[in-house]
């Protein structure tokens, strides 16, 4: 069965922060706002004034740490206690995922996502990525309830920093590199063709506009290139995730990423940076120890880390354990044109370690 799980509406606009209240007012008049100190600073006071003008009452929550089961449950409890009609999640991927996951289990409570970075496709994606409190990946949950509105203000994202945009570009590029191998092995499946087509459109847009978009952020200015980069990183990459059918297409690089998040030494890296390194490992698996030159060039262009350092006093033992712990679900692995084994993973990882 083919389905597309997506927000009901998307809007990207310079200065959108000041119009947020009027957009939300038809759907909810009381809000629980989930954000982070940095994200709230990026949108306030324009956003709070917008809510006040629209006659929307709200209470503010900060996400303290990870998007964890505990954080989701706490947000649900506070939303119910307040009697809020909606959750407005403002920030990056973990804030947005926490807001989406909390609202998914609350009948009658709408969710709205306001992305202050284009570092992931979380504002659009039908998944919520749940972490352990210590920062390691726990699970990715497919949600049935998605945002009524997914919003982004290009002026806010222009001030968010180059590193976040580059991370989002790499995370979006990963969709094509992860999904295209499944299509080579399983041609003529409509759902997979659509998924790869969306991922390819994201890739092509980022090849065309990505570097100019990064240059705009380095100057904290809005441009057409920046807005096309934001659309590719959030909407097109998110759409690739949104297209679902019976064929399970777990992304190999994301499975590698999920295990790497359990390494404390890597907690300073952004999601897309770990995904970029994991794409390199996937490429080494796919092409028998030789990375795809085009992919390598893209990873270098957008400053993705290409090696691991400071793993500890016994790095080879740590690499062995990491390789042992990475598991592509068998239902997905059988549909790939290359194999993922512990030994191949270990060799690929070891080839990138710098003393």
The main sheet comes to: 6 strands, parallel
Q: What percent strand?
A: 5-15%
Secondary structure category: alpha/beta
How would you classify the quaternary structure?
single chain
Mean pLDDT metric: 97
N-to-C series of helices and strands: EEHEHHEHEHEEEEHHHHEHHHHHH
**Helix count, DSSP H or I runs of 4 or more residues:** 15
Q: Unreliable segments (pLDDT under 50, ≥5 consecutive)? A: none
User: What level of helicity do the residues show?
Assistant: 40-55%
Strands of the largest sheet, in order across it? Answer: 2-9-6-5-3-4
Number of E-type strands: 10
Form type: globular
Task: Characterise the protein shown here.
There is one protein chain. This protein is 51% helix and 13% strand. By secondary structure, the protein is α/β, with parallel strands linked by helices. The strands form three sheets. Strands 2-9-6-5-3-4 form a six-stranded parallel sheet. The protein has a two-stranded antiparallel ribbon with strand order 1-10. The chain has a two-stranded antiparallel sheet with strand order 7-8. The longest helix has 29 residues, at 190-218. It is globular. The mean pLDDT is 97.
